[in-house]
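pinned: reference chain
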Amino acid sequence: MRWRYQSKLEIHNSQLMLAPLWSARDNRAMNVPPEAGDIRRLLDIMAKLRNPDGGCPWDLTQSFETIVPYTIEEAFEVADAIENGDMQRLRDELGDLLFQVVFYAQMSREAGGFDFDDIVAGVSDKMIRRHPHVFGGTDVADAEAQTIAWEAHKAQERDKRAKADGRRASVLDDVARGLPALLRAQKLQKRAARVGFDWTVTADVVGKIAEELAELRQAVSKTRESKELQHKEAISEEFGDLLFSIVNYARHLGVDPESALRDTNAKFERRFRQVENEMVSSGRELTQVSLAEYDEAWERAKARETRQFNSYRGDGMNGE
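pinned: its structure tokens
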């Protein structure tokens, strides 16, 4: 995928400033043969795109901050390809995601920082360090024990970074702020639960949801009486509390809330498209369809899915 929208930020580094970096550090030839799987070719393509002398104007305007939205987008497109079972697209999307890593490495290299080799070396060292049962003499009984050991290694790394920063480590360190909100809520709750900050009875989580819903209703009621901004902010806050509690309930049930909502989104889209097609096929204008008619068509779409599922299940059982 090539970029679909343009950055509006100004160029942070002029070509005049970048030119010395190129003459001093980038004397590599831009003619690596197109051999399959040769990472050098991609690295040199990226270097050429960022070369002030004949490079791509768009690529030259980018910074670490402006590339972040594209990186997030590419990661989601990888997930979408996997969800749809499209291996050809998955290959392409993984390539786009790899290109993001190469882009960051090139920008850092230009500034005299790390390069792609440093990234590879760093993650290789980390994997070896976190898998002593594979690369060392440590024994791990099973996958659960490995997970515990993995988290212990990560905790040690957080402690080390905190000491280097001159502060006390927190169990919530390194839970990225850029994560999707549902996923970040889940991770924050898991981290807190490791030190005992968690409900011990699932029924109590349900009670908390009821409590948060009551507080949201109260905030909504106050807002109807007064349209002041502070009341609207209160609704947003209470709604966030409710979502956080629902994520907590999902965690206790062993349900991944991000995946659950993604599946529901797909189900809604699938059924609404059926409703839409039914109305259009009958010559109806969608804006003229009543809610009652929509409800009836929706129920028909649900019934079709149920029949298809039962038919598929029956065929599968008969084939055994």
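why pinned: The first helix runs from residue 15 to 25. The CA atoms of residues 129 and 135 lie 8 Å apart.
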